[in-house]
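Exam revision sheet. Question 4 asks you to relate a sequence to its structure. Input first:
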Amino acid sequence: MTSGHVRISGLAGSFPTAIDLQQLQLSDAHGTWLTAQRVALHWSPLALLARHITVENLIVGRLAIERAPVSEPKKHSSTRLPQIDLGRLSIGALELSPQLTGLRATLAVQGSAHLISLENAAARITARRTDGEGGDYELTLRFDPARMDASLKLDEPAVARSLTCCITRIWARSRS
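Answer key, structure tokens:
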């Protein structure tokens, strides 16, 4: 069914409402691009009958993303996404590779999200660098067809200096 692109090990829990995985790996033609370990999903599968994905908790001990997946070109589809409610997301260690972000980073992530459609959603995500580099991030996003509100807070010295430098250069160019 997945052509070997999804590998699961250590399946346990109270199926189908509480699923625990020791490891989940996603791969493509270039190999494994995502590994999740110690995954616990608590959700309501009956909500699928109403095209609604309701996740109470998604807890991941370690999530390593090596790169963006390589995908095959797809034909345009008119498939509509279901409504998605993610009450609590917790990732103990989100490991991002330099290939993905330009530098290796490990973060602890907490959040929640609510997606009614691609035009109507809300999310709140906080992350803290845990690899000794320092840095706190917070994203709050809410949009609907009439309005978009977003707030991004960055507390990382290197990023803050870089952004300040870029903003100053842009402002200086606009003044000349």
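Marking note for examiners. The beta strands are 6-9, 12-14, 18-28, 31-44, 52-65, 83-96, 105-117, 120-129, 136-144, 147-155.
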